[in-house]
Amino acid sequence: MRLIDAEEFKKQIAGMAIANNYPADKANKMCELIDCQPTAYDVDKVVERLEDMRLKREEQLRACADNDMSDYFRCKMSAIAEVIEIVKSGGIKWNR
Predict the structure, then answer these.
(1) pLDDT for 1-36, tens place per residue?
(2) DSSP 39
(3) pTM of model > 0.90
C-alpha cells in the first residue's frame, strides 16, 4: 500500500480537467470517489491510541517494577509490541 496526498491529487484532477476541457461534473465525481475512500493511515488516531495506551501501561509498568525486574521487562516488551501494532495499523482498529 502507498499513501498519497488526496487533496493534492484532487487539485491535479481539477487542473487536468480544465486543461483538457473535460466537463466539471466528471472531475467532481472523481474527487467525490477519492473522498469516499477509507483512511489508510490516520496520524491523529495513531497519537490518540498511543496516548490511551501510555496511560494504561504506565500503571502496569509501575506495578511490574514493584514486583521484580523480569516482570518489568516483560511488561515493557509487551508495551513496545503494542506500540508497533498501533503504528502499523495506521491508528485504525481492525477486527481481528
Answers:
(1) 677 889 999 999 999 998 999 888 989 999 999 999
(2) P
(3) no
Q: What value, to the nearest 5°, has the Cα angle with vertex 47 and ends 41 and 48?
A: 105
Q: Match 491535479 to its residue by C-alpha cell.
A: 12
User: How many Å apart are CA 70 and CA 21, to the nearest integer?
Assistant: 68
Q: Are 56 and 63 in contact (CB under 8 A)?
A: no
User: To the nearest 5 percent, what fractions of the chain are helix, strand and coil?
Assistant: 75, 0, 25
Distance of CA 27 to the CA centre of its chain: 28
**Grid cell listed for 13:** 484532477
Burial class (CB in 10 A: 0-12, 13-18, 19+), 32: exposed
Residues 40-63: pLDDT tens digits? 788 888 889 889 888 888 877 777
Nearest Cα neighbor of 64 from 52, 55, 54, 76 is 76
CA-to-CA distance for 26 and 60, rounded, in angstroms?
55
